[in-house]
Amino acid sequence: MDIEKKMKEYAERLNAYLTHVLPPEDLFPGEFHRAIRYSLFVGGKRLRPFLTDTVYGLYQDDGERPLPFAAALEMIHTYSLIHDDLPCMDNDSLRRGKPTNHTVFGEAKAILAGDSLLTYAFELMATCSSFPPEVTLRAIGLVAGAAGFKGMAGGQFVDIDSEGKELSQPLLEYIHSKKTGEMIRAACLLGALLGCAPEPEKKAVDAFGKWLGMAFQIRDDILDCTGTSNTLGKSVGKDNDAHKATFPALYGLEESCRLADTATQKAFDAIKGLPVEKAGILREIAEHLCRRTR
Ligand code: GRG
What we know:
- By secondary structure, this protein is mainly alpha-helical.
- The chain has 15 helices and two strands.
- The mean pLDDT is about 95.
């Protein structure tokens, strides 16, 4: 089955779960729950949960069990998009093909919707009783580390701080690996951790996730130059306008494509030691993401 189709099918399963665990829109205060649900259900590829589910599926066949963790990743990702779009950050009016959260609900309510998605993600994981407590704790620690100052928020800080400044390759790689890479890496490792993968396989999946995250963000930079807001569902060309730290800004488009391929190759190399059918599944995902157009 092709990856695009698999991702769509998984997204439906995840969306059904998210619908079930989030407060309904008719619960007081309704506007708050509408703001929370708005950004979550307005679209999105559900890549991070899909990675967790896929890696977990390499080791276990009860795919419902990791859903609270997969849902938590999507909630944290969505919170980051809501906050990233705020006037004080990227000041964007389009996300996932629709007006951004603050454009619809106002800035203060958008901040609160993002905050609630972030905190509810941790509530969902902490109240999940499907795994032994020590596994649950390690999983929560993994996600917290990837989302906070050591990961996504840290990368976002340096990204904002380096706007308009001279770019260096180490700084650019720092930003990309933290801002985007750590959540993608955590999504992969989470699947291995919850699935009780053998230790060497966990290490391989971890390295795979790291290079997959880098390839994904380089591709994201490329699409910001070559894509349309119609296909991407967000404003394009803003990185360049804001003098943002991106691969095309530093290397040009052609070299950036080559670097995305190199990162994908490194992701392949990381899983060479895995049993061939497991490596094949992960390889297909990396190939798909490297060619993606949205
Ligand atoms: C703490 C105030 C405060 C803000 C935090 C952490 C943060 C803001 C922003 C993170 C920066 C960010 C949005 C990184 C992700 C970059 C990226 C590649 C987003 C797009 O991911 P896709 O393509 O999007 O998976 P969909 O819509 O498909 O889910």
